[in-house]
Design goal:
399 residues; alpha/beta; Rossmann fold; seven-stranded mixed β-sheet; 12% strand
């Protein structure tokens, strides 16, 4: 790739994406995973989509070592790049996996959608569906108004008993996505992460079946639109991607993957987000313990009072970054979305040091772009409210 041409293209992008985009109904455009699952601090799909389109070719391999719910993964898939995603959070990798399955051109999505919608027909309000749930699933009770919880347990009962794997996988995604929305605790992920239950006067009935139907219909309609606009080669490309594992519920330092052409990621910011604990409801629903994963989470907010938190973050990210630089092919690009902290912020030296370390690993800085975080994202929690700007940094491995 010609560096001057790349630089020209990169500088013609409004990286804030602070404008309305009217995508053509017959063209490719980014798929927004966030519409189908609420996950903290996910970057907008336009960022990885644009970077992948400019910095790679069809058939290249694109890696996101902090893949989350699959934003980079799905953009890579749509652009016919071979996607690889890693994340230590099984809730996040499950979302990515289900979306990947639903983009299968061979899948009969209409039949699957109708089967999922049909679950709404058999609810009996005289039945106590909570008795059919596990002890860990019953722990969800304190987050919901009584009848709302009974309806949720109806869907959990369906999930616990159906044998069709595809139905089970999509139902898992939709139930997990509904749990925070239907909760009477509506103050954001941080309250869920900190296990702050609703107060007695805060419990409200929520439209469970309406929410379920709307999520099913939106999910399937958006996937159909994206597949309709795909090239004729997408089906054979997709089939080839399924020949090897592409989604890993593990750290990148613990898995064996081949060299990659492009890395696009937004690593965890120090002492900022509890990605694992924010999913405590989904962990209860799936009968898993979030405590099995919190110790492996880099930069977790829950360790912010630990005096060694920043030093531990620097060490963990150093190990990961060394691995990533080793995995990148000669001529490949490494793109990161990182916080642009104020000079007075104690975390700024850590981020600055991490950026400088990439040159020690053999990477060359190509460009850097500042972008501001839209106010609606910053008001989700007090930490986001204090972070106004991010930067997109692009490195290249020259030798």
């Amino acid at each position: 790739m010609d560096t001057n041409d790349i630089t020209h293209k990169l500088h013609n992008i409004n990286w804030n994406f602070d404008f309305n985009i009217n995508y053509s109904s017959d063209s490719l455009y980014p798929f927004d995973c966030r519409k189908h699952y609420s996950y903290p601090a996910t970057f907008i799909p336009e960022i990885p989509y644009t970077l992948i389109e400019i910095l790679s070719h069809k058939g290249d391999t694109v890696l996101d070592p902090f893949g989350g719910i699959g934003t980079t993964f799905i953009q890579s898939l749509l652009l016919e790049r071979n996607p690889i995603s890693c994340d230590i959070n099984p809730i996040a990798t499950n979302v990515c996996s289900v979306l990947y399955e639903l983009f299968d051109p061979n899948l009969d999505r209409e039949t699957l959608k109708q089967q999922l919608l049909a679950f709404c027909n058999n609810y009996d309000e005289t039945i106590d569906y909570t008795i059919n749930t596990t002890d860990q699933q019953k722990e969800l009770n304190d987050w919901y108004e009584k009848e709302t919880f009974n309806k949720i347990c109806y869907f959990i009962f369906q999930y616990n008993t159906i044998e069709d794997i595809q139905l089970c996988n999509v139902l898992k995604l939709v139930i997990s996505s509904m749990l925070p929305t239907l909760s009477s605790q509506n103050k954001g992920w941080a309250y869920i992460a900190d296990n702050v239950k609703p107060k007695d006067d805060e419990y409200r009935s929520k439209p469970v079946f309406e929410t379920y139907k709307s999520r099913i219909k939106l999910l399937f309609s958006e996937i159909e639109v994206h597949l309709k606009n795909q090239t004729e080669t997408f089906k054979s490309f997709y089939n080839k991607t399924t020949e090897s594992q592409r989604i890993f519920n593990s750290s990148i330092v613990d898995i064996n993957v081949s060299k990659v052409d492009l890395i696009v990621t937004s690593p965890p910011y120090p002492k900022m987000i509890d990605y694992v604990k924010s999913q405590r409801m989904a962990f209860n629903f799936l009968n898993q313990k979030y405590s099995d994963y919190t110790a492996h989470e880099v930069g977790a907010r829950c360790r912010r009072s630990n005096k060694n938190a920043l030093a531990e973050y620097k060490t963990s990210m150093g190990t990961i970054n060394k691995r990533l630089c080793d995995l990148l092919k000669i001529g490949g690009f490494f793109c990161l979305v990182l916080p642009d902290y104020a000079e007075s912020d104690q975390r700024k030296p850590i981020i600055d040091s991490m950026i400088k370390s990439y040159e020690e690993y053999g990477l060359t800085l190509i460009d850097e772009f500042k972008r501001y975080i839209p106010s609606h994202r910053r008001t989700v929690s007090i930490q986001w409210a204090s972070l106004v700007n991010e930067k997109i940094i692009i490195f290249r491995k020259e030798n």
